[in-house]
Design brief:
- This protein is α+β, with helices and mostly antiparallel strands and 398 residues long.
- It has two domains: 135 residues; 260 residues, Aminoglycoside phosphotransferase (APH), C-terminal lobe (Aminoglycoside 3'-phosphotransferase, Chain: A, domain 2), CATH 3.90.1200.
- The chain is built from twelve helices and ten strands.
- Helix 4 packs antiparallel against helix 8.
- About 10% of the residues have low confidence.
Length: 398
């Protein structure tokens, strides 16, 4: 965190009572940087984690992810079914963040309706393009929790499916979100994708987001995808089914819901381990990184679960055997289906969304080759899995 950024945050942290005004003078405040896609730091006073500061860096891609994430966090903070009990900065129940000027609060819980646990860390404050969030530093990312013996994997995945079902069932989502668009289409004689369409859809026409377009190796991979009829057809089908796309405007179009847009296992936090209730306990999960949230297909979020299971399996198992790892996503699908008001997930939508997620993962793995050289070896098997799953007969019952 830069000196200038810290200097702008410090007075706010003290004003909110998050930090003791004398703590910085006595060296009891530390800033611990975290390696994520944005500048993220844990601010501590002594051993206690006070909050997490997330600073949005300038991006060459379209849209303003900072505005989107702030809008979602503010909406969640006022939503009685998704925001959980309001919390004060110390972590105790109490007044939550104020609604932004001119922004309507979400409806209250109806009589007899139970408020659910929060689906995201609490928003404590917004300082320019920096979010101050509840500290969840003791929570485990889902990919680590799945390796831990504390929770059965099926229980964790069912909890994630239930969380997504609650999000997708919300009938009063915030408006004017940026969504998950990340690339421009239409420069090769095709119609541009609908607003909020995942950027990978445009790869069917060899189009990449500006942040990736200058990488020759990635451009070559995008050309390979565009030249594969099965992969390109799945990407175009996802774009057509997305709200605002040709099929998304049809009478039989899938229901448009608020999607997280970037569901992956390191964006999911698992809070604690089972208590005395043991097997009857239910894990608490929360989602991070809401920059790509917006109206979309519920299947896109659920495909993130399948992608999280398939990518590691495809690197160590034969393709046909690895694809059977999709079966482990069934507890998540069942839990999602059980949420009142959650949309039905079409098997074909889930298949084409999972193909698209695998293509996106292959591109992102290649993009990480300089920082993590071993990642490049995973590109070919992940893309092979996408090709196999792109065959129409691979759709499984949902």
């Amino acid at each position: 965190m830069s000196t200038a950024l810290w200097g702008s945050l410090l007075p706010r942290l003290v004003a909110h009572g998050l930090l003791d005004g004398d703590a910085t003078l006595t060296g009891r405040v530390t800033v611990e940087s975290r390696d994520r896609s944005h500048h993220v730091a844990v601010i501590r006073q002594g051993a206690r984690a006070v909050c997490v500061a997330k600073h949005h860096r300038d991006s060459p891609d379209p849209g303003d992810p900072s505005d989107t994430e702030v809008a979602v966090y503010r909406w969640l903070a006022t939503h009685p079914r998704l925001g959980g009990p309001a919390r004060d900065p110390s972590g105790a129940a109490g007044p939550g963040p104020a609604v932004a000027p001119g922004e309507a609060a979400s409806p209250s819980v109806t009589p007899g309706e139970e408020a659910g646990p929060a689906v995201a860390p609490a928003l404590l404050d917004v300082a320019g393009d920096t979010l101050l969030l509840e500290a969840c530093v003791d929570d485990l990312p889902l990919h680590l929790a799945l390796r831990d013996a504390s929770w059965p994997p099926a229980t964790l995945l069912a909890a994630l499916g239930h969380l997504l079902g609650r999000l997708h069932a919300a009938d009063d989502p915030p408006h004017h979100l940026g969504g998950s668009a990340g690339g421009a289409g239409g420069d090769r004689g095709t119609a541009p994708p609908a607003p909020g369409t995942p950027w990978v859809v445009a790869v069917a026409d060899g189009v990449l987001p500006p942040s990736l377009a200058g990488d020759g190796r990635i451009a070559e991979l995008a050309g390979e995808v565009a030249g594969d009829p099965g992969l390109a057809d799945c990407l175009r089908a996802l774009g057509a089914r997305w709200p605002g796309g040709p099929a998304g405007r049809a009478a039989a179009a899938p229901q448009a819901v608020l999607v997280h847009g970037d569901v992956k296992f390191d964006n999911v936090l698992v809070q604690g381990a089972p208590g005395p209730a043991g097997a009857g306990a239910v894990p608490r999960l929360r989602l991070l990184d809401w920059e790509l949230a917006g109206p979309g297909l519920a299947a896109w979020d659920l495909a993130g679960i399948a992608d999280g299971l398939l990518v590691p399996a495809l690197q160590v198992l034969p393709t046909a055997q690895a694809l059977r790892e999709r079966d482990h996503a069934q507890p998540a699908l069942d839990a999602h289906r059980a949420v009142p008001g959650a949309p039905r997930i079409d098997a074909q939508d889930l298949r084409i969304a999972t193909v698209a997620r695998l293509v996106q993962s292959a591109i992102q793995l290649l993009a990480m080759r300089h920082q993590q050289p071993g990642r490049e070896a995973a590109v070919a098997p992940v893309l092979a899995g996408a090709r196999a799953l792109a065959q129409p007969h691979m759709a499984a019952a949902v």
